[in-house]
């Protein structure tokens, strides 16, 4: 098997190309993957030289960029942006995977235009790999499709199961459907209908409904939901974890301060 | 102003009447509120006697009960359950508030039947008071209405604002609409339409859209959403907090064990 090659949008993220280039160099050295950086060639070559990696990482020039807050329109899709140029390399077989820290809506739309979807998949979904008690759960959709039909949820289940098994490396992954109760009769009409579709599909290793509690509790390997609830759920885990860890850090710092104060007195 | 009186369904919860009766006695003693316990009279009087509170808490007999897992049907509404009898006392002016740890769907349905809703409110919502960074946020709906129309979200905003101000005691509460982006154009069609209704209603102190991150971050005082997303969000905060605190406890216990081990050796 030839070395896999990852094509990287060098322009995405909050810290410009510097952080992405450094990450690409590290990935190339540590994991032995081929990396192609896409963006303004001159700037990328300068960054690579700073890391002594001028020869080890390929650079592909893309003259234009998509802003992080840019609203995706036809002109977004038409320009020779780093996202566009990078995805064309996947389409043309010059790369096996695409990475971007950039504008999610632009990545989603351009990927759908340039690569299309698998047969029998109507809509791509965004999947997040959420850490749980000692493992990982694949949660999808986390924001690409705010509203979905039951059939979309069935397709997400199939895609999530394959992704969990082949990419995340989870053995014989089991799929749960996010709802507001364990019973098959709980949830919106679309969720209730999706429960039926998932139960009846022999290709899906279906566990049944799961609830918000279960996302981090390692009940199932894959959790399927619409892009609205999935986005809310993902951001709630992040927000809750951040507040709890900040409060604990403050409490610990406070108790150390008290101890240091006691020593000084 | 006469002493407020709370009517309590003595049968709800995971631990039978014992815990509810003990709580009612404590509330009666500590907060000086009048409490009426509703349930099987004989059993409740025995429990009260165990706490030396036979005279201080009123007992109202209700011969029947609603099971925690009971599916709510017409016969649920028709029986003389503790929920039914308790809510009738609110309707008849014999109590100012109702408390139950029992079957939520039964409470919701019987309350809607016995008490009705306020004028201009089509559907009751379930509100949760979520702790945040140094304060509290009112989140509604957390599960009564899996699907809602934009107008329902507007009504929830008004009810949430009044509840936050008058019951939770938050000063001049501000309302956020849960969505998957800050912009007014983000979310499902119903959420986008609700953003417009909330913006235009002079009775609502509207902040704009909030995201899952913001529930525990004290960005707004009231967060409005449909009962599906709200239920998921609430349970995700609980599940995330539980997993993080368990992991930290295990880590701390582990480090203490290591220290004790070092001392013994």
Structure, described:
The structure is a homodimer of 265-residue chains. Chain A is α/β, with parallel strands linked by helices and 265 residues long. The first copy, chain A, has 8 helices and 9 strands. The first copy, chain A, has helices at residues 16-31, 41-50, 74-78, 82-91, 104-114, 150-166, 189-200, 227-264, and strands at 5-9, 34-39, 58-61, 97-99, 127-132, 135-140, 175-178, 206-210, 222-224. A 5-stranded mixed beta sheet of chain A has the order 5-6-9-7-8, sandwiched between helices. In chain A, helix 2 links the parallel strand 2 and strand 3. In chain A, helix 1 packs across helix 2 (41-50), helix 4 packs parallel to helix 5 (104-114) and helix 6 (150-166) packs across helix 7. The N and C termini of chain A lie far apart (67 Å). The interface between A and B is large, with 42 and 42 residues.
What does the secondary structure layout of this molecule look like, with pairings?
The structure is a homodimer of 265-residue chains.
Chain A: E1 5-9, H1 16-31, E2 34-39, H2 41-50, E3 58-61, H3 74-78, H4 82-91, E4 97-99, H5 104-114, E5 127-132, E6 135-140, H6 150-166, E7 175-178, H7 189-200, E8 206-210, E9 222-224, H8 227-264
Parallel strand pairs in A: 1-2, 1-4, 2-3, 6-9, 7-8, 7-9
Antiparallel strand pairs in A: 5-6
Task: Name its key features.
8 helices; alpha/beta; homodimer; 265 residues; 45% helix; globular; four-stranded parallel sheet; five-stranded mixed sheet; 9 strands
């Amino acid at each position: 098997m030839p070395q896999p090659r990852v094509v990287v949008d060098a322009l995405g993220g909050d810290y410009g190309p510097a952080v992405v280039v450094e990450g690409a160099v590290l990935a190339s050295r540590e994991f032995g993957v081929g990396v192609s950086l896409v963006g303004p060639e001159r700037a990328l070559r300068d960054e690579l030289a700073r890391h002594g990696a001028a020869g080890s990482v390929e650079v592909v020039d893309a003259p234009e960029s998509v802003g992080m807050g840019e609203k995706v329109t036809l002109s977004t899709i038409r320009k020779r942006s780093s996202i566009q140029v990078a995805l064309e390399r996947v389409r043309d077989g010059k790369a096996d995977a695409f990475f971007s820290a950039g504008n999610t809506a632009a990545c989603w739309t351009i990927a759908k235009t340039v690569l299309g979807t698998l047969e029998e998949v109507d809509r791509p979904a965004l999947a997040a790999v959420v850490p749980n008690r000692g493992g990982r759960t694949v949660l999808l959709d986390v924001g690409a499709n705010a509203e979905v039909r039951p059939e979309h949820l069935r397709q997400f289940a199939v895609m999530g199961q394959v992704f969990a098994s082949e990419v995340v490396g989870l053995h014989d992954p089991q799929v749960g459907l996010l709802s507001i109760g364990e019973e098959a009769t709980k949830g919106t009409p679309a969720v209730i209908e999706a429960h039926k579709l998932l139960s009846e599909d022999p290709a899906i290793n279906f566990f049944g409904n799961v609830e918000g509690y279960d996302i981090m509790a390692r009940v199932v390997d894959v959790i399927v939901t619409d892009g609205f609830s999935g986005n809310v759920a993902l951001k709630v885990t992040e927000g809750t974890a951040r507040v709890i860890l900040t409060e604990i850090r403050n409490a610990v710092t406070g108790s150390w301060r008290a101890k240091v104060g006691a020593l000084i007195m």
